[in-house]
């Protein structure tokens, strides 16, 4: 269970050795430690030091998030989940050709997820979109190109090639996705900060929920989230998270599309201003958080394993960490 406290005046404390959460107005409840995997706190939430100590001693991360769900920081013990050998090899791996081939695999999975997402949209909602076949053919072509990636030996050229392939596939993907949206959620390409339309505001929030899950999985596995491969080093930016989130982005995109097409969001789900663009308001957050967490809790088969979607993120991080621990780079 991921616990989200996003209402002003909510409280997180401890009662009878369990977490105690209480909204500003309403009854509180206790949560057994075994059920809590992480706690996400927005601005305006009160927290006791007893709750923070319980989380640290129990290995449960507590993350502070901004208004659109992006992590600002976290409370943790300061200890990685495994030995330093992993992070030493990770530094070398991040500069190597095998490291780039690993990222190419992530980007190929991203493109495969895009095709699956589009096929599911078309089938479930009986969509008839002009240019659909052409767009999906382009994405399939990118997937086929990824099969030849190990024939590329120049690291800088390979980086540019991977960025080009990813950009092309994603551009066609979002063009098709935009064509599938109802008029109230029409959009023209991706916009991040600010979001220029409700759909992008929704997608930004869902991505914001995914980022800390990937970062937590990496830390538990003993990886350094700030030592990426394809993404350039940036101060205070978890670039390995940016690399490894790619195969899961279509999960957020599916929920965004489902909520919009089925009209499941309330009329006051969004706020907007000329300066800051659109963002998800509190009435919308409650629907989005509940829907996405239920989706992540569903079991799916991935790489031959039937697990909860959220568990697959942990398994991917453990596979990378295990390979780094055993290999010589």
CATH topology description of the largest domain:
Four Helix Bundle (Hemerythrin (Met), subunit A)
Low-confidence stretches: none
CATH superfamily of the largest domain: CRISPR-associated endonuclease Cas1, C-terminal domain
Distance between the termini: 37 Å
Task: Give me the count of strands.
Answer: 12
Order of helical and strand elements = EEEEEEHEEHHHHHHHEEHEEH
The CATH class assignment of the largest domain is Mainly Alpha
Q: What is the 3D shape?
A: globular
Overall pLDDT score:
90
Biggest sheet architecture:
4 strands, mixed
**Rg over CA atoms:** 20 Å
Number of domains: 2
* Residues in helix, %: 40-55%
CATH architecture label name of the largest domain: Up-down Bundle
Summing up helix and strand content along with how strands pair, one would put the structural category as alpha/beta
Oligomeric assembly: single chain
Strand order of the largest sheet: 1-5-7-8
Figure out the total of helices: 10
Beta content: 5-15%
General description of the model:
- This protein is α/β, with parallel strands linked by helices and 329 residues long.
- Helix content is 50%, strand content 15%.
- It has helices at 49-57, 84-93, 97-125, 132-146, 155-180, 198-221, 239-244, 249-261, 282-297, 309-326, and strands at residues 2-5, 11-15, 18-22, 29-31, 38-41, 46-47, 62-65, 71-75, 270-273, 277-280, 299-302, 305-308.
- A four-stranded mixed sheet has the order 1-5-7-8. Strands 4-3-2-6 form a four-stranded mixed sheet, covered by helices on one side. It has a two-stranded antiparallel sheet with strand order 9-10.
- Helix 3 packs antiparallel against helix 4 and helix 6 (198-221) runs antiparallel to helix 8 (249-261).
- It starts with a strand and ends with a helix.
- The mean pLDDT is 90.
């Amino acid at each position: 269970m991921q616990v989200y406290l996003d209402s002003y005046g909510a409280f997180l404390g401890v009662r009878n050795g369990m977490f105690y959460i209480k909204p500003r107005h309403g009854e509180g409840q206790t949560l057994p430690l075994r059920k809590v995997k992480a706690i996400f706190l927005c601005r305006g939430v009160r927290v006791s030091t007893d709750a923070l100590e319980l989380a640290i001693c129990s290995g449960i991360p507590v993350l502070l998030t901004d208004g659109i769900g992006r992590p600002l920081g976290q409370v943790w013990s300061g200890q990685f989940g495994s030995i330093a050998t992993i992070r030493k090899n990770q530094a070398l791996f991040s500069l190597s050709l095998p490291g780039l081939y690993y990222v190419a695999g992530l980007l190929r999975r991203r493109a495969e997820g895009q095709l699956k997402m589009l096929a599911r949209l078309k089938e479930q909602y009986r969509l008839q979109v002009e240019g659909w076949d052409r767009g999906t053919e382009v994405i399939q072509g990118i997937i086929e190109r990824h099969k030849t990636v190990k024939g590329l030996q120049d690291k800088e050229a390979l980086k540019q090639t991977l960025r080009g392939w990813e950009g092309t596939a994603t551009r066609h993907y979002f063009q098709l996705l935009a064509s599938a949206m109802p008029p109230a959620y029409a959009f023209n390409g991706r916009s991040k900060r600010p979001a220029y339309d409700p759909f992008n505001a929704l997608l930004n929030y869902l991505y914001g929920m995914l980022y800390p899950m990937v970062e937590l999985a990496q830390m538990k596995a003993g990886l350094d989230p700030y030592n990426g491969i394809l993404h350039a080093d940036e101060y205070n930016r978890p670039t390995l998270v940016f690399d490894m989130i790619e195969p899961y982005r279509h999960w957020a995109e599916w929920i965004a599309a489902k909520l919009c097409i089925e009209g499941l969001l309330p009329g006051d789900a969004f706020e907007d201003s000329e300066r800051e663009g659109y963002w998800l308001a509190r009435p919308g957050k409650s629907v989005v958080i509940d829907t996405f967490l239920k989706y992540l809790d569903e079991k799916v088969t991935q790489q031959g394993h039937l697990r909860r979607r959220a568990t697959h993120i942990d398994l991917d991080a453990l596979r990378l960490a295990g390979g780094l621990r055993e290999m010589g780079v």
